[in-house]
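Morning!

This is the sequence you dropped in the shared folder:
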Amino acid sequence: VPFSAFVPEVLAEENVVCVGGVVMKKGDYLPVGATETQESMPDEGYAFYNGSELILNDYSYTGDGFYCEEKYDKYTTIIYPTVIYSKNSLSLVINGDCSLIGKHASYTTRAICSDGDIEIYGNGRCYLKAKRPIYAVGKITVDDVFLDIYSQYSYGIHSGTSTIYAYDASIRIRGIRGMHTYVSDSNIRFSGCDVDISVSEMGIFSSG
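The structure's back. Tokens below.
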């Protein structure tokens, strides 16, 4: 079920992303550690959303991020806690030294989640740690960036319906599982990459 089936209306709008539990719209800056956005550029690490790209400049976050609660009788189920969420396709630019760590105990916790495609690029490095660090319903593209991933439960990079592409990127995955595409006509493609996967269960699994 897409995450967007559960999120409040503000996150279902176009040109909106959620970073560390904070809703960001076009032109918003989010300093490291902040719980509210601002209009001016911070002096140090921050996230910035320009309406088409989410840009991380030496940005780091550790915490539960955003999540929804579904109540069933006396029980409450936590839905997909995630550090960065976008209903639409997400273009993520990594500059400097960044980290995204999802701390929530739910096995569905993600560092980056999109109901569309995810494209990650830039000249920096990003450390990602969560139960399921990177998940997209659509395709995932990693281009000329360094991703250092630790998967605590399932796949470090997982596409639900499409292909994973990596170009001129450095990808390091540790933890439980590596990379996965789900549907039969999808696959995983590398070009000019440095890939280092050392996990306890399954390294690369493509259904295509």
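Headline: The chain has no helices and 21 strands.

More detail when I'm at my desk.
O.
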